[in-house]
């Protein structure tokens, strides 16, 4: 596979990964703040689906295409920008894995509340706080990774 095709796949998958994350966070955050339990249940279901469809696949595609581009272009793994990109990516994925579990809990708790016509339970709000707290470092690590991919500082 040519470098250009690998780079295109890498850029497209990073766009899906970051875009899905930012979009999902935006919609779930603002829908949750509305406290409309039925709307929250719908959005939480869609956010979990988007994570499985887009984030899960791109979490695999990103390191694969990155590694293949590195080999094709002859970049050494010891390049500081590559090492930092890998470290930051591991941090971001380490934040995302519990976020995925938290989103599934938010989906289930909001569906139960919507079906029973009750307010969201305290557990929802506890998981939601953790979800927000994990999303913040994940967001900024991806911003840093984008910078490293573009600037390739020595």
What does this structure look like?
This protein is mainly α and 154 residues long. The chain has one domain (3-151). The chain is 88% helix and 0% strand. It is built from four helices and no strands. The chain has helices spanning 3-34, 37-73, 80-116, 122-151. α1 (3-34) packs antiparallel against α2 (37-73), α1 packs antiparallel against α4 (122-151) and α2 packs antiparallel against α3 (80-116). The chain is elongated, with a radius of gyration of 18 Å. The two termini are 27 Å apart. The mean pLDDT is 96.
The total count of strands amounts to 0
What is the CA-CA span between the terminal residues?
Answer: 27 Å
Structural class: mainly alpha
Largest sheet at a glance? none
Indicate the multimeric state: single chain
Helix content: over 70%
| Low-pLDDT sequence parts | none
Count the DSSP helices: 4
> Strand share of the residues?
under 5%
Number of domains: 1
| Radius of gyration based on Cα positions | 18 Å
Helix/strand order: HHHH
Mean pLDDT: 96
Label the overall shape.
Answer: elongated
SSE layout and pairing:
Elements: H1 3-34, H2 37-73, H3 80-116, H4 122-151
Summarize the structure.
With 154 residues, the protein is mainly α. The chain is built from 4 helices and no strands.
List keywords for this structure.
mainly alpha, 0% strand, elongated, 154 residues
